[in-house]
Amino acid sequence: MADTRTRAGDIAHLGHVEMLTDRYDESLDFFTRVYGLKLSGEDADSAYLRAWDDYEHHSLKLTRAETTGVGHIGYRAASPEALDRCVAVIEASGYPVQGWVDGDDGHGPAFRFGDPFGHVFEIYYETRRYEAPPEDRPALKNTASAFTGMPPRRLDHLNLLAQDVSVFRDFMLTCLGSRVTEYIQLDNGRIGGCWFTVNNKTYDLACTEEHGTGHGRLHHVTYATDQREDILRAADIFLQNGVHIETGPHKHAIQGTFFLYVWEPAGNRVELANAGARLILAPDWEPVRWTEADRKKGQAWGLKTIETFHTHGTPPTAED
Amino acid sequence: MADTRTRAGDIAHLGHVEMLTDRYDESLDFFTRVYGLKLSGEDADSAYLRAWDDYEHHSLKLTRAETTGVGHIGYRAASPEALDRCVAVIEASGYPVQGWVDGDDGHGPAFRFGDPFGHVFEIYYETRRYEAPPEDRPALKNTASAFTGMPPRRLDHLNLLAQDVSVFRDFMLTCLGSRVTEYIQLDNGRIGGCWFTVNNKTYDLACTEEHGTGHGRLHHVTYATDQREDILRAADIFLQNGVHIETGPHKHAIQGTFFLYVWEPAGNRVELANAGARLILAPDWEPVRWTEADRKKGQAWGLKTIETFHTHGTPPTAED
Amino acid sequence: MADTRTRAGDIAHLGHVEMLTDRYDESLDFFTRVYGLKLSGEDADSAYLRAWDDYEHHSLKLTRAETTGVGHIGYRAASPEALDRCVAVIEASGYPVQGWVDGDDGHGPAFRFGDPFGHVFEIYYETRRYEAPPEDRPALKNTASAFTGMPPRRLDHLNLLAQDVSVFRDFMLTCLGSRVTEYIQLDNGRIGGCWFTVNNKTYDLACTEEHGTGHGRLHHVTYATDQREDILRAADIFLQNGVHIETGPHKHAIQGTFFLYVWEPAGNRVELANAGARLILAPDWEPVRWTEADRKKGQAWGLKTIETFHTHGTPPTAED
Amino acid sequence: MADTRTRAGDIAHLGHVEMLTDRYDESLDFFTRVYGLKLSGEDADSAYLRAWDDYEHHSLKLTRAETTGVGHIGYRAASPEALDRCVAVIEASGYPVQGWVDGDDGHGPAFRFGDPFGHVFEIYYETRRYEAPPEDRPALKNTASAFTGMPPRRLDHLNLLAQDVSVFRDFMLTCLGSRVTEYIQLDNGRIGGCWFTVNNKTYDLACTEEHGTGHGRLHHVTYATDQREDILRAADIFLQNGVHIETGPHKHAIQGTFFLYVWEPAGNRVELANAGARLILAPDWEPVRWTEADRKKGQAWGLKTIETFHTHGTPPTAED
C-alpha cells in the first residue's frame, strides 16, 4: 500500500533557502561582509552563498526581486529512492504541486510543491558539493572550506508564517515526514507556533501564526554558530556596522536556543543561533507544549518579546 | 529476503555505558561531585548516573568490580519493530550472542551480543524516562532535569580498543547499522582508528587499535558540554580537585572536537568534549581519511599526542 | 600646604560593602549557594563573604537589619601614610565625619565619614588577608582560595543613588581621590550618572540620580567574572533557582560592561559583570560624556532599559 | 633628597614596542590580516600598528631591519612632572643613558636609556591619541576605534631575555618603579624569571633567563583579548593561515594567563593572552615565588613546556 506520509529518515536535512531582496547589492554586501557568508557563485538574478562549513554549493540563494521574503525552501532527500517515495506521497497528498524543475547551479532536479499558505518547497537528492578552490581550502580536511572566524558555521533553520499553524503542521508531517519537537498551544486551543525537524537537530523549520493579511511570508532564516561567544561578538559587529538589531542576544525558553535577530538591509529578518549540545535523540520524543501562561514569563531569562517579533515578516503587508 | 545488515535509522542512539571500578566509592564521588553527573539510583553493585539533560534514567552505570573497564554498552533502538529487525540481523550474523536479558533499573528487555574483541553490547527499546523529583525539576520544561551549571549536558560517545579495527568496523556496520564518518589509515594499509555514528552526531563510538595484550578494553567515555568554556572551567575544577589531567584542553584534528581527558580515581579515562555546531547531515557523507602524514602534524593546533594516550586503557594489562 | 583633595594613588581599591537584609537567612543562602560567594566567618549580626579570588577576609558583609540597603562602603588605602593623608583631607573637607572605628573581623582601624546623601564610607589600611584552611587551599598559589567554578571572582563595584550626582562627584574627588571615567549629562545640564575609579579599573563606584524620596540608597553591588560565559551560565542558575532576573545578560553602552542584574531575596539588586580586557590605563583619560540622545539608543545592543532599573533601590521608599 | 628609585605611579603604562623584522612585508601582512592589528601609518622604515582599543597612535612599531628582535620599549609617564622625576632618577642611576630623542609619529619627546643586557627603553608623556577617521569611528564612544571582531583588544605585555634576571629586576625597580608580582626561584637560588607591573595589570613586562649567547633579545610580545574564546578562535585562524603555532591554547600556572604563542613570519614570537578578571589590587601584594618543584608540574593544566619556549628568542643567535 502506498505511503500516505513521508517516512522518517527519507528527508535528510534542510538544504537551502532562497531569500528575495529588493536591495540586492546592499543585501549581498551585508551577507558577505558583515554576516559572514561566502559567495559560491552569482548569476544574473541570484547570488549563491554558504557558511564556511556548509557542504553543498550554497545554503542561501539571494535573489533580486521586487520585494522581500522567501523564494523557495529546499530539502535534500536521503537517497534517490527516498526522493521517489516522497514525490509519490506529495503527488497523492492533494497539496499543490508544481512538479520537477531543473535545479540551479547548486543541485540537480528538484520536485516543487507548496504549502496551503503560499510557500514554495522543493526536494532534491543530486547535489553539487562545494569544491573549494585553492584559496578556500580548509586546513582541516573534515570541514568544507577555509575557516574565516565569522560566526555562521552552517545553515540551521527558517521560520515561516501561516494563518493556521495546525494546517501547516499537517503539511510538514505529510510531505517532509517531519516530527514536532515543541509547540505553543494558545488558551483558545489553537496552535500558535510549531517547531519541526527531519533529523536529530532540535528543529530545522518553525512556523508561527500570521496575525495580519500577509501571505506566504518569512519570519526569519538562521545560521548556527559554534559557540555562544560567536553571537556576542556578532552583536558588536552588527552594532559597528549599523545593522538593525531587533532583539537579543538572549535565550529562548522554547528550544533553549541562544539567539540574536537582525534585519538585513532589505528588511528580511536573519538570526544567529546556538543550541549548545542539545539534540533530539529520543526516537519517541514527546512534543513539548508551551501555554500562554508559560509564554507570559518571557524568554528564558525574562526578556519580554519585542513587539515587532510578532508583526514583522517579509514581504511587508499593506498594513506595514 | 532477510536484512544482512541493520538498517540506517533502526538504532536511535547510544544510551548508556557500564563502567567498572575497583574504587567504587572514590569513582562515585568523582562522578557526582567533581565531574558533575547526578545520581538517579543505586543498588547493591551499581550506581546509576546521568547528566542533567540525559532523558533516560541513566547514561552511566558505575559498577563495583575487581578491575576497571567497560561492562557493557547500550544502544536504544528506534522502535520495537526496529529492535526486532536488529535482533534478527545479529542472530544471523555469526557474532557471539548472549540473548535477551531483563534490563536493569533503567530500561526494559535488552538483547546482548558481543564484538570479536570481548566488548559486550546490548540493544533495547523500552526505556525508563528520567522522572525528576520536585527538587530536581527543570526550570525549562524542554530539559530533563534541573540545570546544575556542571559541564556535562549529555552522554556523547565512547572509545573502545580492538586488535583489528577493520574487523570491529564490520561489526558496527552489520549489527548497529553505523556509518563511518572518519578513519585513520596507516601507511601499512591497516585502519588505525575509526569513528562511527548511527545518527547525525559526528560520532557516538570510536575504535582505535589495541597495541598490547589487552582484551575488550575501554579507551574512554565522553560527555558533551554546551560550550568550550565549560571545558576550560572544568580543567580548573579538575586541577583544584587533584584529578589527573592527561591531555587538553585542545582541539582534535580528527572530528574537530574540543577535548579534555582525565582519569577517574580507578583509572578509567573520561573526557569532556564539545563539537560546536558540527553535525553530519549529508546522507552520503564520504568518510574522511587521515594518513600517518596527517597525524604527524599533531592535534589541530599542533599539540603532540601524549604517549599514554596510545597505551593507557582499562582494565590495565599485564604490561602496565 | 595641606592637600585639599586626596591624591591619586592614595586609595588602593574598593575593599568591601556592607549589605543590609531583613531576610538574613534567605540572603545568606542566596549568596553562598546560588550566587557563589564563600563564607569566611559569621558573628551575631553579620556574615562575612568573599569571592574565591578576593584576597581579603571579606568583600561583602551581610548584616541582619530591619530593612535593606547598604551599611557602609570600605576602601583600602595604599599605605599607612596614604591613610593619614586621606584622613587629614577628609577632616578638613567639611563632609560629615564619624571618626575612627575599631574595624571588624576583616580589617584594622577604619576612619568613617559620610557623603551628603547618607551613605557611610570608611577607609583603612591594616587588613586581614584571607588565610585559606586546608580544604580551601587553591591549586595555584597565585589565587586566594580554592577555585569553585562559581561565577564571581572578585568584588568589582557598587552603585549608589544620590539626589545630586554632581555633589556626590565632588565628594568622591575630594575624599577618595577618584577620577571620573564616564558620565551622563542630561539635556537640562544635570549629571544623571557618574562612574568613578581610584585605580586602573574602569570603575569601582557608580552614582546615579535618585528620583524619589529615597535617602542613602543602594542601586546595586557587583562582582566580576572571568568570562562572559560565566554570566550566561549564571543566568541559567538563577533561572533554575527561582531568582528574580531583572535585566540581562546584555552589554551596557556606558563602560561596555557585559551585565546581569538580579534581586537577592531581600530585594537588594546584585550584578555579575564582565569588562573583558578593558582598563583605564591613560593617565589623562578624558571622561566620556553620554547624552540623552545617546541614551535613547538603549543599551549597547539596543535593549531598552527596564523601568525598575530607574526606580528600584534599597531600602524601599514610602512610594514603593 | 633626590629619589633613588622611580616612584610607584610615576610610570602609567607600557605604551609601545618596536619590533624588528627582516621580512617586513610578510610581517606586516601577518599583523594586519591574520593577527588583527590596524595600520595607523607607515613611513620609510616602519609601520605603526595598534589594536582596536589601543588609545594611542600605535602600540607596535614594526621596523625593517637586517634581523629580528626588539628595537625599543616605550613606557608612558603619568604626567610631565612624573616624567621629569623618572629622568632624574635614571640619569643618577648609572644605567646607560642615550638621552632625549624627538619621538616619532606617535608621541612627543622621549628619554632613552638601556638595561645592562642591551634592551633600549624610552619614557615619554606627550602622546598622539589615535583619532579615528570616519571609516574607523567606533560605534561606542568609549572605545578607541571601530570594533573589528579580531582578537587583540590592546597591547598587554612583552617578555625580554636577560643573562641575569636579578640584575634586570633591579633595573626595572629603579628606572620604572615597577613592582614584582611573581617570580621563579631556581634551586640554585638564581631568579629564573620575574614578572613586573607599573599599575594594576598583573604584569606588563616579564624577564626570563637567557641561556645562550644572545644579547638584548626578545622572547615575545603579547596583546590582550576580551575573552578566552577569542584565543580559541584565533588558533583556528592561525591554523587556517599556516602560521606556526608554538604552544597553546593553555593556561599558565604563573599568572594564570590563558595563552597562545605563534611565530610571525620573521620569527618573532607573539602571544594572545587573556587574564580574565585578574588584577593586582593589593597595595602590599606579596610576590609569588615559584620553585623548580612547582615548575615540574608543567603549565596549569599539566601541559609540558615545549623545548623551543626555553631556547627560541629573537634575533637568533649563532647557535640557532
From TrEMBL, chains A, B, C, D:
Sequence ranges assigned to domain VOC in this UniProt record: 13-126, 154-275
Gene3D superfamilies associated with the record: 2,3-Dihydroxybiphenyl 1,2-Dioxygenase, domain 1 (3.10.180.10)
Known EC number: 1.13.11.39
Species of origin: Roseivivax jejudonensis
Signal peptide: none
Origin: domain of life: Bacteria
Protein name: Manganese-dependent 2,3-dihydroxybiphenyl 1,2-dioxygenase
Transmembrane regions listed in the UniProt entry: none
Class in the EC hierarchy, top level: oxidoreductase
Coiled coil spans: none
InterPro entries (UniProt xref): Glyas_Bleomycin-R_OHBP_Dase, Glyas_Fos-R_dOase_dom, GlyoxalaseI/FosfomycinResist, VOC_core
